[in-house]
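Hi there,

I know you've been waiting on this one. I reran it after we fixed the sequence typo, so this is the corrected version. Both the input and the resulting structure follow.
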Amino acid sequence: MNSQQFMIPAVDIKCVAEPNEEKAIPVCDESLLKATKQIHDTFRDYGFCYLTNHGIPTSIVNDIFSSSRAFFELPVSIKQRYARPIETNHGWAACERESLNPERPYADMKESFNFSPCDNGQWPKEVPEMRNHFVQFYDCCYTLTKQVLRLLSLALEIKDLDYVVNCHKLIGQKGNYTTLRSLYYPSVGKDLKEGQIQCGEHSDYGTITLLFQDNTGGLQVLGKDGLYHDVTPLPDAVLVNIGDLMQRWTADKYPATKHRVIVPEQALKEGRSRQSLAFFVHPDDSTLISCLDGSSLYPPITSYDYLKQRFEATY
């Protein structure tokens, strides 16, 4: 299977309530059942799935991309004022601060700005609109997350469709590590060292991740053939992938597929940077993750304990 043949399917979820609605998902709707089966099959086969008609307005996505870029283009001396403190998950992380694949010789060539509503961190006065854009986008992603988790509950045939959602009821509050991360991959040229890429091979830690990308490309996903394949950005779609805790929860029905970010050849030639937005969804800290099918494939572990283990290996 080559890159041209590796295409993550897109599922239309227009049948689900719009993200600003809180109504329950009807379980007898034919279009919903079709979407549920498509999502189940795609996550089972890829660990990733594109969602279209997800309900988050393009204007809201464009706004946060715009204010993020304005921040990332500031001098390092200014961005350093808003660096993420050790004790919170809010703020800026510089290039080569993280190593998502510790086996690589150099850390990742990317920078980021993290946000969670429960962290009272500083916001850059140089980009006054940035805070409102992050808050608005976070709220949209949270509501979409609840819809996606209910769809997954349908796909997994969980009797209580709200069980998984209720394990995330503290999103945006203390006791839950769900984080919105704006990512910036600078144009690199000769700055990239031997064996260094922009984001090392890894799987995400939590339940699911909602990923919004620009059109630069560079994301690659590990296929069943053991090779990494290019993932072409799909305009106005959100790319959703399974995290480690969801893989454990589902006893490997849905894999947390490894992925990475490289510098596309065209972007390298043109000196282009790349942007993405990742909404990393985690269960509440105290949630005990044990296999939903009753098996003992994975030992139970709390969401907090698992996240702590992974953070210690990354930083």
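Quick highlight: The mean pLDDT is 90.

Best,
R. S.
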